[in-house]
Amino acid sequence: MRWVRHHLLTAYAVLALVYLFLPIAVVVAFSFNNPKGRFNYTWEGFTWKNWLDPFGYPGLGGALRVSIEIALLSSLVATILGTLIALALVRYRFRGGATTNLLIFIPMTTPEVVMGASLLALFVNWRMPQGFGTILIAHILFNISYVVVTVRARLVGFDRHLEEAAMDLGANEWVTFTRVTLPLIMPGIIAAALLAFALSIDDFVITYFNAGSTITFPLFVWGAARVATPPQINVIGTAIFVVAVSAMLANILFQNIRSRKGVVPV
Amino acid sequence: MRLLHRQKWSIPYLLLAPGMAWLVVFFVVPMWYLGKMSLSQGLFPLFTFGWVWSNFHDAITAYQTQFVRSGVYAGIATVIALAVSYPLAYWIAFRGGRWKNLFLLLVIAPFFVTYLIRTLAWETILADNGIVVHTLQHLGILGSDGRLLATSAAVIAGITYNFLPFMVLPLYVSLEQIDGRLIEAAGDLYASKPRAFLRVTLPLSLPGVFAGVLLTFIPAAGDFINAQLLGTPRQYMIGNVIQSEFLAVRDYPTAAALSFVLMAAILVLVLIFARILGTERLTVSHV
């Protein structure tokens, strides 16, 4: 009976994972499809040609380029701003801490349509032309909170004795920070940056409100879905998936190796 | 601990300044403009502010159906997501061993495929000539002309799937933190396995349930992509209305009023829910 229960749960977990990957399997499979019409909804036959010419569909390459640029810039800026906030929140007691926490928390619980709409209201009021700049502003904004939460989690479990030891050995505050603190919280910072990158490259709703005539990859998919769904969309989708998962996997493996070597006390 | 003892009062504020400035200028200020817009009148692009409270009344009366539908769809999707995620998170936390992080990555991985592409994939899966519809027709669950696409079921299924990581992750975090010795202790005191689960594990995981429900319900209630791609105008939610009022109709005041009503409705539901679970204290620290 115990055996059955034990494996019942495992079977359930496997089923849940299958469910999670079902649409992904469809996306990957249909990147090899050879659709007859403009829509890529029914299986017509296997082909390599979409993978050999991923940017063969007009506009797709440019849209992806914009998405990657915005994801890189926004994750970089948000990671810096968010890490500084996390350091202040964990390391110092100061007046206004509760308000700060609230201001970090609320954007994460605001529906995306509302956040997109409020930014639109701002840019309209300021008569600010919408485009690359406004998308970048919006992406940095929604990424900051996620970076703070991720880096803070790493900082909370931090052994302060290591910093004391460095100072006892004569390191000043700056050296202690750059040589001890920063390397130790780096996995958290990298995880935050990866998360921010992923959120940015995937964002549709907020971007949709603030893009002007600029087209990002999700906006391209949205526009394309009305008139056609070229299989190249699936190729790019699969590629982003593979790159993102590899990066996350590398971060996990790197942490495991470091902790096994005893570099990071866990 | 010189770093702590010698701290100048200004250091935390210097660290906070750039990031908080960004949040104030691009989150708080826009909300203020949105609030002003919701009390304005006029036609695009000239709106004049004038305490037009009737915007709210008009918006709610005109789009009552979509509001209720959003709440119902998001509610059902959240319950299903909880049912799917809890055992999965439990399994990873208690049976994952040293592969926990890898399994967690497996759970998040599907969501690195662009949201819209994922949803389009569900369109393929649920299509009229797809396997799922054929199987259900074979089993007699669906009539011979029955379909899944363009129904409420399809929209709810899409929402459930798309926000699943927001449910799994907080559940996992709270389950993983549970001290296994507490469950053992319950066993030592002759609690049966189900009883130990109900009286020890489940209560200790409630903060995770709370955070998961919140993080799933809120984006679900504001979503418009699933209704747009998997449904028809008869399945449209309040997000669809806000989106088209802003970007197609360009009736900014109505759209702004709808946005605030949505936020307020969500806030009220969250507070009621917090009261029921009695975990208000735990939310901020756990999310």
Structural write-up:
The complex is a heterodimer of chains A (266) and B (287). In chain A, α3 packs parallel to α6. Chain A is 76% helix and 0% strand. Chain A is mostly helical and 266 residues long. Chain B is mostly helical. Chain B is 75% helix and 3% strand. Chain B has 15 helices and 2 strands. Chain B has a two-stranded antiparallel ribbon with strand order 1-2. In chain B, a hairpin with a 2-residue loop joins β1 and β2. In chain B, α3 packs across α14, α4 packs across α8 and α13 packs antiparallel against α14. Chain B is globular and about 70 Å long. Chain B starts with a helix and ends with a helix. The C terminus of chain B is likely disordered. Chains A and B meet through α1, α3, α4, α5 and α6 of A and α1, α2, α4, α5 and α6 of B.
The oligomeric state is heterodimer
Count the E strands of chain A: 0
For the biggest sheet of chain A, the summary is:
none
Order of helices and strands of chain B: HHEEHHHHHHHHHHHHH
Please bin the fraction of helical residues of chain B.
Answer: over 70%
Instruction: Give the low-confidence spans of chain B.
Output: 280-287
> What is the helix content of chain A?
over 70%
Strand neighbour order, sheet with most strands of chain B? 1-2
Q: How far do the termini of chain B sit from each other?
A: 30 Å
| Main beta-sheet strand count, sense and barrel state of chain B | 2 strands, antiparallel
Radius of gyration of chain A: 23 Å
> What is the number of strand segments of chain B?
2
Termini separation of chain A = 37 Å
Helix/strand-derived category of chain A reads: mainly alpha
Overall form of chain B? globular
Contiguous helical run count of chain B: 15
Helix tally of chain A equals: 11
Structural class of chain B: mainly alpha
**SSE ordering of chain A:** HHHHHHHHHHH
**DSSP strand content of chain A:** under 5%
Gross morphology of chain A = globular
